[in-house]
Structures are given as C-alpha cells and as structure tokens.
Amino acid sequence: MGAPLVVMEAIAKDFPGVRALDDARFELLPSEVHALVGENGAGKSTLMKILAGVYHRDAGRILFKGSEVEIRSPHEAQQLGISIIHQELNLMPHLTVAQNIFIGREPRRGFGALLDDRDLNDQARLLFQELNLKMDHRRKVGELSVAGQQMVEIAKALSFKAEVLIMDEPTATLTEIEIDELFRIIRQLRERGVGVVHISHRLEELKQISDRVTVMRDGRYIDTVKTTEAPIDKVISMMVGRTIFETTPELPGRPDPEVVVEVRGLNRGRMVRDVSFQLRKGEILGFAGLVGAGRTEVARAIFGADRLQSGEILVHGQKVDIKSPADAVRHGIGYLSEDRKRFGLCLGMDVETNVLLAALRRYLGVLGAVRSRLTESVARSQVDHLAIKTPSLRQKARNLSGGTQQKVVVAKWLTADMEILIFDEPTRGIDVGAKSEIYRLLNDLAREGKSIIMISSELPEILRMSHRIIVMCEGRITGELTSAEATQERIMTYATQRLAAA
Fold first, then answer.
1. Into which CATH architecture does domain 248-332+418-502 fall?
2. pLDDT (tens digit, 9 = 90+) per residue, 202-224?
3. Handedness of CA 143, 144, 149, 154 (dihedral sign)
4. What is the spatial distance between Cα 163 and Cα 235, in angstroms, rounded to a whole number?
5. 391 vs 345: CA distance, rounded Å
6. What does the pLDDT look like over 128-183, one tens digit per residue?
7. What is the radius of gyration, based on Cα positions, of the chain?
C-alpha cells in the first residue's frame, strides 16, 4: 500500500479533570479502511479530532505523507486533505444539497459579486456521478434521510479533494440496506486511494469493511492487527481488558401475570395507529421494526411527550390521564430517550445534578434548600453501582463519553425509582463492554419487578433481551411473538408486512 498517509506518535491530550489521551498513536495507509475501536471514553474520537484540527494536542507529533505538520484548525486539515464526518452531522437543513457541499466556497460570476448557481449545481452533479449516487443536488437537506445526509457529508469531504476521510460512528442510525450502500461508497473511495478511518462500536462490521483494526483503551494505544487475523472475541478482550461473554444471558423467570400497563387503541397521526398492548410486572417487552415504524412515537405518547388524538392508558387497571411527562412520572413511568443529549440530560450541569434531576424534591430541606450531603451520597452510590466513568460528581455531563452519558440517564430514573421504564435504543453508540453492563442492568431491574419496554433496531439485541416482542410497521402493530417463537426472519416478515401489502 506504500508509505503511510498519516502517522500519529505519542499523542497526549488533557481536559479539565481528566487525561483523555496518553501516549496514543495511529497509522493510516493509502487505499486502506482502518477501523478504530474501543470502549466509550477510550479516546477514539478525541484522537481523530486532533487529526482533523478540532482539538490541539498537548504532546506528540503528526506526520502527513512523511512530513511533520501542525494542524491548528479544521480548515487547515481540509487544506491538507483531511476531512472528518462527525457522529452528529453538521449540515444546514434549510439549504440545498449543493449549497451545503460548497458552503463558503460557492463559485461566483460577475467579478465575484454574484453566486453562480448553475456552476454550483454542475459541480455537485459531477461529484455524485463520481460516487455513482442517485441524489437530487437541488433538494433541501432537511428533506433527506440520515443516510442521505451522510452521503452529502461524504460528497462535501471529497469536494476538498480529501485523501483522508474520518467517519465517526457512520452506521449508528442506518438500516441494513443503507449500511450496504455506505460500504459500497467506502470501497469505492479505497479503490481511488483514499485512506478511510472507520470508528464504530458495531464489531460485526469490521470483517465487512476494514483492512486493519487499532484498539484503544483508557486513552492509550493497545495494538493494531490485520482484520483477517483478529477474531471478534480477541478484539473485545483488547478493548475491555477483560473477557466479555457474548452468549445470550439468562432472562429473568417468567414475568408476573399481573398487567402493570395496558394501552388501548392509541392514535396519533400516521405514526401511531390503533396501537394496543399489555406490559406485565417484571417483563422486558421488546419493540422491533424498521426505522420510521412508529416505535418511538408510541413511547413518547405513553410518556406524555406527545399528545394523543385518541386511546386509553391504564396503570394497574386504572385509567390515567397523561398529558405531560410530569404526569407520567407521577404514575411511575420513566422514559430514556434515544436522543439522550436533547431529552435525557442537562449537558451544562454536573453528574450529581443530572442523577438527582427526576427526584430532586425528595432531597429538599424544610426551607427548600438542597440537602447536599444526602444528594452527594445518593449520586455516588449510583455512580459506583453503574460503574459510571467520571473523574468526579462535579464533571459536566457534556464532557462525558456517549456511553457514560447514557449511564447517567439510567441513574436518573433509578434514583427516581420508577416502576415502569421505557428504554429507547438503550445501547446505541455504546461499546461492547458497556452494552454487557446495560443488559445485566435490564435483567436485574426485571428481577426486581420493574416493567420494561425496550425499543431497539438491533435484532440480536431484541431477541436476546425480550420476554415478548411487539413488531411495528407504518404506525401499526403487525405482530407479537414470544421469546420462544421469535427469529430474525419472523420479525422481519412482520416488520415489512404493511409495506409489502401496500
């Protein structure tokens, strides 16, 4: 493959209260797809943000095509030919695809006084032809799917003549079909000599797309191996420094026959249509379906985040009127949103405050003052119980890794002692070690008699963790399976049933 495109040596980076990187290193070859893996907080994204000019390193050096370079900003990285596609896409939804690709670099006419829309659209069209992408470059980005927006980000990166493309969790929110299309584009880039860094928690993807794998742990470099010589269990062992058993855990015994929640004929627009089901005490009820099936909309309706048009919700046989999340909490219902940053956390507040947020009234004194000694003790016990990686309870939530943020949200609802918990994509963006801990936690909660609704787009996860499985398609329930009846094939049959009939 020739001399390395990128060499990073002895990289160190400190943030307030935590050393994010310590003697980290990385190498990328031309025409290589190089997977970068590790648990949440391992330093993967931080290392790549240093390469992309988002952060500046505190120590170490970077060589690009054999020459040592200083990369002080994303613009300098792009000028070198290094582009990054962040996990949270950075596009302007009100602008067209072409306008997003060339924002700040629009072609002009009339001595630079006017934008040349024709040239702009022609350049975008040529880019898509090179990538064999069928996409209308005049369409507004806000109208595209997540997969479509990622393709726009790739085209934008290549418009800078990128020789290095960094992709941070590019498949986290994509369907299998969309992942296949993304991998086709990545292979095409590899054939053109582009070096691709692929950061992912989905270890099963490694064999499909990568040539080599670099493993990081606790901000340090562990090893680099050829993908063909790296069994998944070996990669996992290097990531976590301990053995993670990926076999199906034993589900808690049969749920209590007592029905804790009953939903009757819920309706809300096209995404929730005549939805009815029951949830029993100590049960993990899985909700499966393709993206856009309406699973999250059902959860939000039950939690009072979205108002219902019709239908009934019963808790312990009593009809309840849930018009807001506060109403849901009063009836013992907690919701862990798939978008933890927007709906699960106060990012500017510290860990302790976030953990206590849903139950703060319990810890107020006579005159309304917070009983700080007690709140600190409660928060500390949750941090220890869930193995939350934080340098202190005073650490701001925004400075935590994605997996650690998810654990803080879990801690919040455990502190509030909710009887009914709705987990929406509980392991999205979480590494294999943290996943194992979340699975163990869900099982423990069910054993304690908590009733759990778990929404997941990962079929192995649904099959592994559910007593029963509800399958949705286009806003309706199209199937219900026991754990003994369920297979990936049967779930997918139900998940596409409404589409096939249309």
1. 3-Layer(aba) Sandwich (3.40)
2. 777 888 899 999 999 889 999 99
3. negative
4. 27
5. 18
6. 888 787 888 889 988 887 778 888 888 888 888 889 999 988 876 676 777 888 89
7. 24
